[in-house]
């Protein structure tokens, strides 16, 4: 059944998800604060600032009027970067219809508070069902209609199933889960690990080191998810292993390409936002507070704050006497 889907955020991912929802027959309204972006989407079916020359779905409409966008929304997709999510939702809160599910599409942890995105929603919009959409999915692939599969998680599995049905179509497939925390942890941590994978390759340490690092990080990711209340098996799926494979191997990933530049000693200014850089210190701190054994994350945080070199980080991580799963 056709729904009114409102996308909050006119960047690459919001625009791509808007195309996907329009492709699935929904009425889609994208809220962007930048009028030039709105005009370009409405009149030229492009968002050149974020998606180059990709032609967007004809039925994707945009507005900079948040009240008009959110009027009668059936489902809201929050596609604003993690560090801006709370401020944006605080402002838009009075406009979001009662009971309307809010689907988090940002991957990350709030740096200033350590909150997961779902905790932000629970604090700001306590009466709304909360879901998260996450998995291996580059915006440009989804906007072009390339085959993609993701997880949609909500603690109420009936809502997750309903959302998965809303967004699944011929090229975009959603698998439902009730493990919201596990799905969110996978998305937030893969960003950090992708920076390290890129740095390993950029420094010329080889694909074998990259694979070893990512595998060790994957074990750590499952431990961290468990400690936060998620299920380790969730990390075996699209929002864990799937996204790790994508983000740790492709220069299309902002996090991986940030790591590549870091490893090569290239200038870092002007690179697109790499969420993993913002989140590594806070995740390392949360793990330390909770006494979670997280050598990979803490080593990446040390690398990013400049206290160790890439060679020392990678060789250190791969030379410890370790048990199988460590
Ligand atoms: N790009 C991708 O391939 C994917 C991204 N994601 C996740 O999606 C999230 C967003 O990423 P992405 O779309 O790529 O980021 P972009 O940098 O492409 O776009 C971010 C958008 O958010 C808008 N924005 C920022 N702050 C606010 C605010 N306070 N109110 C309203 N709008 C705001 C920006 O507006 P303005 O243009 O005016 O600055 C911009 O349109 C990230 O968490 C990312 O991890 C997930 C999967 C894939
Ligand atoms: O989350 C993504 C792909 O699933 C996008 O990754 P980056 O934010 O590293 O570009």
UniProtKB/TrEMBL annotation:
<dbReference type="GO" id="GO:0051287">
    <property type="term" value="F:NAD binding"/>
</dbReference>
<feature type="binding site">
    <location>
        <position position="254"/>
    </location>
    <ligand>
        <name>NAD(+)</name>
    </ligand>
</feature>
<feature type="binding site">
    <location>
        <position position="275"/>
    </location>
    <ligand>
        <name>NADPH</name>
    </ligand>
</feature>
<dbReference type="InterPro" id="IPR006109">
    <property type="entry name" value="G3P_DH_NAD-dep_C"/>
</dbReference>
<feature type="binding site">
    <location>
        <begin position="9"/>
        <end position="14"/>
    </location>
    <ligand>
        <name>NAD(+)</name>
    </ligand>
</feature>
<feature type="binding site">
    <location>
        <position position="139"/>
    </location>
    <ligand>
        <name>NADPH</name>
    </ligand>
</feature>
<comment type="similarity">
    <text>Belongs to the NAD-dependent glycerol-3-phosphate dehydrogenase family.</text>
</comment>
<feature type="domain" description="Glycerol-3-phosphate dehydrogenase NAD-dependent C-terminal">
    <location>
        <begin position="179"/>
        <end position="314"/>
    </location>
</feature>
<dbReference type="GO" id="GO:0005829">
    <property type="term" value="C:cytosol"/>
</dbReference>
<feature type="binding site">
    <location>
        <position position="253"/>
    </location>
    <ligand>
        <name>sn-glycerol 3-phosphate</name>
    </ligand>
</feature>
<feature type="binding site">
    <location>
        <position position="33"/>
    </location>
    <ligand>
        <name>NADPH</name>
    </ligand>
</feature>
<keyword id="KW-0443">Lipid metabolism</keyword>
<keyword id="KW-0594">Phospholipid biosynthesis</keyword>
<feature type="binding site">
    <location>
        <position position="254"/>
    </location>
    <ligand>
        <name>NADPH</name>
    </ligand>
</feature>
<dbReference type="InterPro" id="IPR006168">
    <property type="entry name" value="G3P_DH_NAD-dep"/>
</dbReference>
<feature type="binding site">
    <location>
        <position position="190"/>
    </location>
    <ligand>
        <name>sn-glycerol 3-phosphate</name>
    </ligand>
</feature>
<dbReference type="GO" id="GO:0046168">
    <property type="term" value="P:glycerol-3-phosphate catabolic process"/>
</dbReference>
<keyword id="KW-0521">NADP</keyword>
<dbReference type="InterPro" id="IPR011128">
    <property type="entry name" value="G3P_DH_NAD-dep_N"/>
</dbReference>
<feature type="domain" description="Glycerol-3-phosphate dehydrogenase NAD-dependent N-terminal">
    <location>
        <begin position="4"/>
        <end position="158"/>
    </location>
</feature>
<keyword id="KW-0444">Lipid biosynthesis</keyword>
<keyword id="KW-0963">Cytoplasm</keyword>
<feature type="binding site">
    <location>
        <position position="137"/>
    </location>
    <ligand>
        <name>sn-glycerol 3-phosphate</name>
    </ligand>
</feature>
<dbReference type="Pfam" id="PF07479">
    <property type="entry name" value="NAD_Gly3P_dh_C"/>
</dbReference>
<dbReference type="InterPro" id="IPR013328">
    <property type="entry name" value="6PGD_dom2"/>
</dbReference>
<keyword id="KW-0560">Oxidoreductase</keyword>
<comment type="pathway">
    <text>Membrane lipid metabolism; glycerophospholipid metabolism.</text>
</comment>
<feature type="binding site">
    <location>
        <position position="107"/>
    </location>
    <ligand>
        <name>substrate</name>
    </ligand>
</feature>
<comment type="function">
    <text>Catalyzes the reduction of the glycolytic intermediate dihydroxyacetone phosphate (DHAP) to sn-glycerol 3-phosphate (G3P), the key precursor for phospholipid synthesis.</text>
</comment>
<dbReference type="GO" id="GO:0141152">
    <property type="term" value="F:glycerol-3-phosphate dehydrogenase (NAD+) activity"/>
</dbReference>
<feature type="active site" description="Proton acceptor">
    <location>
        <position position="190"/>
    </location>
</feature>
<keyword id="KW-0520">NAD</keyword>
<feature type="binding site">
    <location>
        <position position="50"/>
    </location>
    <ligand>
        <name>NADPH</name>
    </ligand>
</feature>
<dbReference type="InterPro" id="IPR008927">
    <property type="entry name" value="6-PGluconate_DH-like_C_sf"/>
</dbReference>
<feature type="binding site">
    <location>
        <position position="135"/>
    </location>
    <ligand>
        <name>sn-glycerol 3-phosphate</name>
    </ligand>
</feature>
<feature type="binding site">
    <location>
        <position position="254"/>
    </location>
    <ligand>
        <name>sn-glycerol 3-phosphate</name>
    </ligand>
</feature>
<dbReference type="GO" id="GO:0006650">
    <property type="term" value="P:glycerophospholipid metabolic process"/>
</dbReference>
<feature type="binding site">
    <location>
        <position position="13"/>
    </location>
    <ligand>
        <name>NADPH</name>
    </ligand>
</feature>
<feature type="binding site">
    <location>
        <position position="255"/>
    </location>
    <ligand>
        <name>sn-glycerol 3-phosphate</name>
    </ligand>
</feature>
<dbReference type="InterPro" id="IPR036291">
    <property type="entry name" value="NAD(P)-bd_dom_sf"/>
</dbReference>
<dbReference type="GO" id="GO:0141153">
    <property type="term" value="F:glycerol-3-phosphate dehydrogenase (NADP+) activity"/>
</dbReference>
<keyword id="KW-0547">Nucleotide-binding</keyword>
């Amino acid at each position: 059944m056709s729904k009114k889907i409102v996308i909050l955020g006119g960047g690459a991912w919001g625009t791509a998800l808007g195309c996907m929802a329009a492709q699935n027959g929904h009425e889609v309204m994208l809220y962007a604060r930048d009028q030039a972006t709105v005009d370009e989407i409405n009149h030229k079916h492009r968002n050149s600032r974020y998606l180059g020359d990709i032609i967007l779905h004809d039925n994707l409409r945009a507005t900079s009027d948040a009240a008009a966008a959110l009027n009668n929304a059936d489902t809201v997709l929050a596609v604003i970067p993690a560090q801006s999510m709370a401020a944006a939702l605080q402002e838009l809160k009075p406009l979001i219809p009662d009971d309307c599910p809010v689907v988090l599409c940002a991957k990350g942890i709030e740096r200033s508070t350590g909150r997961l995105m779902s905790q932000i929603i629970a604090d700001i919009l306590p009466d709304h069902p909360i879901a998260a959409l996450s998995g291996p999915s580059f915006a440009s692939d989804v906007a072009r209609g390339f085959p993609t599969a993701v997880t949609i998680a909500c603690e109420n599995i009936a809502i997750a199933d309903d959302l998965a049905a809303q967004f699944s179509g011929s090229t975009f497939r959603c698998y439902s889960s009730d493990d919201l925390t596990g799905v969110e942890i996978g998305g937030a941590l893969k960003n950090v690990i992708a920076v390290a994978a890129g740095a390993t390759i950029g420094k010329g340490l080889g694909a074998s080191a990259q694979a070893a690092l990512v595998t060790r990080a994957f074990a750590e990711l499952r431990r961290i998810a468990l400690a936060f209340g998620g299920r380790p098996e969730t990390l075996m799926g699209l929002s864990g292993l799937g996204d790790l494979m994508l983000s740790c191997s492709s220069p299309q990933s902002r996090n991986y390409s940030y790591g590549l530049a870091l490893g090569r000693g290239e200038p870092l200014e002007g690179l697109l936002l790499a969420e993993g850089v913002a989140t590594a210190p806070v995740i390392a701190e949360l793990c330390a507070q909770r006494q979670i054994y997280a050598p990979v994350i803490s080593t990446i945080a040390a690398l990013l704050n400049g206290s160790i070199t890439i060679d020392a980080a990678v060789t250190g991580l791969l030379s410890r006497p370790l048990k199988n799963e460590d």
